[in-house]
Write a structure and sequence with these properties.
With 459 residues, the chain is an alpha+beta fold. The protein folds into three domains: 5-90, Uridine Diphospho-n-acetylenolpyruvylglucosamine Reductase, domain 2 (2-Layer Sandwich), CATH 3.30.43.10; 92-220, Uridine Diphospho-n-acetylenolpyruvylglucosamine Reductase, domain 3 (2-Layer Sandwich); 224-415, Vanillyl-alcohol Oxidase, Chain A, domain 3 (3-Layer(aba) Sandwich), CATH 3.40.462.10. The chain is 32% helix and 22% strand. The protein has helices at residues 5-12, 21-27, 48-61, 113-123, 140-145, 153-156, 238-247, 280-299, 312-316, 322-325, 347-360, 391-410, 420-429, 432-445, and strands at residues 17-18, 41-43, 65-68, 85-88, 95-99, 104-108, 127-128, 163-169, 175-178, 210-217, 219-220, 224-232, 253-258, 269-277, 303-305, 333-338, 340-342, 365-372, 377-387, 414-415. The strands form four sheets. Strands 12, 13, 14, 15, 16, 17, 18, 19 and 20 form a nine-stranded antiparallel beta sheet that branches. The radius of gyration is 22 Å and the shape is globular. The protein binds flavin-adenine dinucleotide. Flavin-adenine dinucleotide is lined by residues 66-74, 77-78, 89, 109, 132-135, 138-139, 141-143, 145-146, 148-150, 205-206, 210-211, 323-324, 452.
Length: 459
């Protein structure tokens, strides 16, 4: 590989490039279970023009470029599998515009979830975005690049469904405007009624271009929020309960969680129901409809609401920090989760298999599953915590995650933020016509294969 340190310094300045071993060490890994891969350079652009110049240089020299937000997607998808440049986007951190009445925001490609949340709380307290439970430093652009989900996904779908426009640097260095702002000043729609070109970039894990700006829908921030947890001890009841609760259209967010520790949780399935309102009256009205929806399960003693007063403040936190705390349960700070998306009706079968796999490999797990878009599907976070100093334990986690994904795909599910082996499983199962369209997209957009190579390798 040609030495490109000097041209990179010419583009972004000395302080924003590194090929020092300690920096490369850091950028070789994520907190997940997959082995590190060393980049050759790390570069942190500040402007779209700098991103363009870096990508042009990389394209001329056929050097890989891996866009990176906060590196917290856990499935190894920001590891530079073929070396080259890791492009750290965090310096592109401007909130460009909020359209208050149109309820959308435009952010640069490195703006974090926590930054946008704080900005809205300070300046537009009546607006909010669909914040994931990921650490607050994770970025909005990365989250839509992997079709993430957040606190409003039950109502409005994947966070990528909430995109209203994109600015993308293509692998040849050109900038492309996607959405209504391609022909006017406003970022209110990513596609309809134009051909929706955002699909060339959303879900591609940075393999088709670099998102330098993202337009995102905002939603009303209600004044009050409350939560209830409904508990059953039979997985086969979960689908019907979710169906009844989602039918009320009263819930802001609906998640299911189960874990074997502490022991009081073992064998139970907890359905967490969030609901909001601007007045006590509105909240109580929604609570009543939610209770009514599952009353027959309470009457038959098949389920009931849990007393949650001491846990409430933690549950209402956004993002919910207890999820990150789980990472250090076995000490050693390793944490990774398999995230298939399946129909809600597959819950009992997938859950039983997951618990069996965890027992087979003797692994501690915690599972949180979010219901998407009013009950169309469920997005799983089946987490294994592990000790990074214990290679044998990490190998068990890897095998268990692969087995869990294979099973989910056999049930008709799809993988979410798939690691390389899950991508291969998906490609293997894909209809040839779909695969050939993906090939056409990739070959035309990125003929030199420089963008996050090793991921979505359809060629
Ligand atoms: C405790 C915990 C809880 C989590 N909870 C959730 C959750 O509730 N919902 C959820 O969706 N996720 C969750 N996650 C997973 C993950 O952290 C998020 O999806 C997060 O959005 C990833 O952001 P990042 O900036 O760390 O992405 P990165 O890991 O940096 O990047 C992810 C992918 O996007 C690509 N990419 C990054 N920036 C760009 C760009 N500007 N242009 C093009 N491609 C780009 C990268 O190449 C990579 O393929 C959780 C993770 C943890 C650790």
């Amino acid at each position: 590989m040609k030495d490109i340190l000097k041209p990179l310094v010419d583009i972004v300045g000395e302080k924003a490039v590194s090929n020092h071993e300690e920096d490369l060490w850091y950028y070789s890994r994520d907190p997940g279970v997959l082995e590190p891969k060393r980049p050759d350079y790390v570069v942190a652009p500040k402007t779209t023009e700098q991103v363009q110049a870096i990508v042009r240089l990389a394209n001329e020299e056929k050097i890989p470029v891996v866009p990176m937000g906060n590196g917290m997607s856990l499935t190894g998808i920001v590891r530079p599998l073929k070396g080259g440049i890791v492009m750290d986007m965090k310096q592109m951190n401007k909130i460009v515009e909020v359209n208050d009445r149109g309820r959308y925001v435009v952010v640069e490609g490195g703006v974090s979830q926590g930054q946008l949340k704080a900005y809205l709380e300070d300046n537009y307290p009546h607006l909010r975005h669909s914040i994931p439970d990921a650490p607050p430093g994770t970025t909005i652009a990365a989250n839509v690049a992997l079709h993430g989900q957040g606190r409003l996904s039950m109502q409005y779908g994947f966070n990528s469904d909430m995109v209203t426009g994109l600015e993308v640097v293509l692998p040849n260095g050109e900038v492309c405007k996607i959405g209504s702002w391609c022909m006017g000043p406003y970022w209110f729609s990513k596609g309809p009624s134009l051909p929706d070109l955002s699909g060339l970039f959303l879900g591609w894990l940075g393999t088709t271009g670099v998102l330098t700006k993202v337009g995102l829908r905002l939603y009303p921030q209600k004044k009050l929020r409350d939560v209830e947890i409904f508990v059953v001890d039979r997985a086969e009841l979960v689908e019907d309960i979710i169906y009844r609760l989602s039918h009320t259209e009263m819930t802001e967010d609906l998640t299911v969680w189960f874990q074997p520790k502490p022991l009081m949780f073992k064998g139970n399935y907890h359905i967490t129901v969030y609901f909001t309102g601007d007045t006590e009256e509105e909240v109580e009205f929604k609570r009543k409809l939610i209770w009514n929806a599952v009353q027959s399960y309470i009457d038959s003693k098949d389920g009931g609401f849990m007393g949650i007063a001491p846990m409430k403040s933690g549950l209402l936190e956004q993002p919910q920090r207890t999820i990150s705390v789980f990472a250090d349960v076995p000490k050693g700070g390793g944490f990774e989760y398999s995230g298939p998306i399946t129909l809600v009706e597959n819950f009992p079968e997938y859950t039983a298999m997951f618990e069996e796999i965890a027992a087979k490999y003797n692994l501690l797990y915690a599972a949180t599953i979010r219901v998407i878009a009013g009950g169309h599907a469920m997005m799983y976070g089946m987490s294994f915590a592990f000790n990074r100093a214990d290679q044998e334990m990490m190998d068990r986690v890897k095998t268990a995650l692969d087995e869990a994904t294979e099973f989910a795909l056999d049930l008709g599910g799809i993988p979410w933020k798939p690691n390389v082996s899950e991508q291969a499983m998906a490609i293997q199962r894909m209809d040839p016509s779909t695969l050939s369209l993906m090939k056409m997209v990739k070959e035309n957009l990125d003929p030199n294969g420089i963008m996050n190579p090793g991921n979505w390798e359809v060629n």
